């Protein structure tokens, strides 16, 4: 097995095993794709431009056309990788939707386009999806995640319409929305078995805010998206998995949900405010080790959850070596036993760290069939689809025209720090006309070109001659000023 793992390590490309390591359900290769490959709809690419976008030699930067109106004058740019995969496996989504009470009839939900009548609570959505081992999961998530979030928010629309009131602890037994008696002053129907019964108030009740309810709604939508991908793999070919970073604007607040290693920062008065954390084998070491400790059968008798500074040799049995397990942030010494000779669950450092020598991210969507190379050991149990959600209250600050949120896949952040991104965006926007509708797209384009670099004899290089990013890069630059005005203007 160890030789198999060594072979797997040598064939890693961009943090994931080759496509062959993803085994489809049944004869998955003969199944049709859930959605045909394309670039984001708002780019409105002709077939010729779509073909041009796949040129690895020139790596053209794609941006929306000048007559394209994204919500909030959002800026966007993308570029394909330098050759690690045939297609750009990143995807993006930028949508305006409306949240309103469910009609009571069964919804067609996410399978249909949103033909809203413009009534309800405005919801803005931005998402970047960094695919690996194929673009299938990223495409599906980019088409459906925002609709899942919208549908779940519709279930609590009656609560969103009354933000001054805390969400009720219980809804009715059948799960239908809480309904106030239409007769003014009429008492609500009492249920003697309900926790709201005064006679049952012998325990403490937690106060739950509307903000935390929205956060939970987004978290559950991510889980629903992951379940939907798994379910639809029986009927469609959905390749690989993806990291997912989503931003939802609802009622004056930005909810940023991240599952993976993409990143979002807010730049306010040239100050950097991180709005996401990256989830990698290193940052989630203890969670992964704890799962391996609790359920050793998931390790297939081939891996050890314990971390050592290096691989252990047979001749070192009985000696003491530095180690750490799921209970430790520091290091200690332990006596080496036969069990410790197994391949470590987490191996490598930094961008080269891998779970089971296979994948370099620990949260995301998809990857349901991902296995350790040439084995029957599934990796999905160690991968979480649950995002971390952070909230930014736009109403608490006065934002200027140069205050923005930058969302990008790891192709941007691998070669550019938060501070460098903030300085580049601030410097660029300061030279632009505040009334130019393309200023944020031009800023995104400039940012992307800085990270891609220029093609030279020794590959794509940055101005300091360091290697540029060879990965797919996707960037949103989202202005934060006048957000209330933007929310009132349909199609702004």
UniProtKB/TrEMBL annotation:
Annotated gene: ppm1j
CDD domains assigned to the protein according to its UniProt record, in alphabetical order: PP2Cc
GO cellular component: mitochondrion
Protein name per its UniProtKB record: Protein phosphatase, Mg2+/Mn2+ dependent, 1J
Domain PPM-type phosphatase: start-end pairs: 73-480
Molecular function via GO: [pyruvate dehydrogenase (acetyl-transferring)]-phosphatase activity
One Pfam entry name: PP2C
């Amino acid at each position: 097995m160890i030789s198999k793992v060594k072979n797997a390590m040598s064939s890693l490309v961009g943090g994931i095993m080759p496509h062959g390591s993803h085994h489809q359900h049944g004869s998955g290769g003969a199944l049709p794709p859930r959605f045909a490959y394309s670039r984001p709809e708002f780019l409105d690419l002709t077939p010729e431009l779509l073909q041009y976008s796949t040129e690895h030699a020139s790596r053209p930067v794609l941006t929306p056309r000048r007559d394209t109106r994204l919500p909030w004058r959002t800026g966007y740019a993308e570029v394909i990788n330098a050759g690690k995969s045939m297609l750009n496996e990143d995807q993006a989504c930028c949508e305006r939707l409306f949240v309103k009470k469910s009609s009571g009839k069964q919804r067609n939900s996410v399978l249909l386009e949103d033909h809203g009548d413009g009534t309800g609570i405005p919801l803005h959505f931005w998402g970047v999806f960094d695919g690996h081992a194929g673009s299938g999961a990223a495409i599906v998530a980019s088409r459906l995640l925002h609709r899942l979030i919208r549908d779940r928010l519709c279930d609590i629309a009656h609560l969103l319409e009354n933000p001054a009131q805390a969400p009720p602890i219980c809804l009715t037994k059948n799960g239908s929305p809480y309904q106030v008696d239409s007769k003014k002053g009429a008492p609500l129907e009492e249920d003697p078995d309900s926790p709201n019964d005064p006679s049952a108030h012998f325990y403490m009740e937690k106060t739950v805010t509307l903000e935390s309810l929205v956060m939970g709604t987004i978290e559950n939508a991510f889980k629903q998206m992951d379940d939907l991908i798994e379910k639809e793999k029986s009927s469609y070919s959905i390749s690989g998995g993806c990291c997912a970073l989503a931003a939802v604007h609802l009622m004056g607040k930005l909810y940023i949900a991240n599952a993976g290693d993409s990143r979002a920062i807010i730049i306010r008065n040239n100050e950097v405010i991180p709005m996401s954390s990256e989830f990698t084998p290193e940052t989630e070491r203890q969670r992964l080790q704890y799962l391996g400790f609790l359920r050793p059968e998931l390790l297939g008798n081939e891996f050890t959850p314990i971390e050592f500074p290096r691989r252990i040799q047979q001749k070192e049995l009985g000696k003491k070596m530095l180690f750490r397990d799921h209970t430790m942030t520091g290091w200690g010494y332990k006596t080496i036993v036969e069990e410790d000779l197994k391949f470590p669950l987490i191996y490598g450092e930094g961008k080269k760290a891998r779970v089971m020598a296979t994948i370099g991210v620990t949260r995301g969507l998809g990857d349901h069939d991902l296995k350790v190379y040439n084995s029957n050991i599934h990796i999905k149990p160690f991968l979480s689809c649950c995002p971390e959600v952070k909230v930014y209250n736009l109403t608490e600050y006065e934002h200027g025209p140069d205050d923005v949120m930058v969302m990008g896949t790891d192709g941007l952040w691998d070669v550019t720090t938060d501070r460098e991104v903030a300085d580049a965006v601030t410097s660029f926007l300061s030279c632009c006309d505040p009334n130019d509708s393309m200023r944020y797209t031009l800023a995104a384009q400039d940012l992307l070109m800085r990270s891609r670099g220029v093609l030279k004899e020794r590959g794509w290089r940055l101005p300091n001659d360091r290697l540029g990013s060879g990965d797919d890069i996707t960037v949103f630059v989202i202005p934060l000023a006048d957000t209330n005005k933007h929310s009132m203007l349909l199609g702004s």
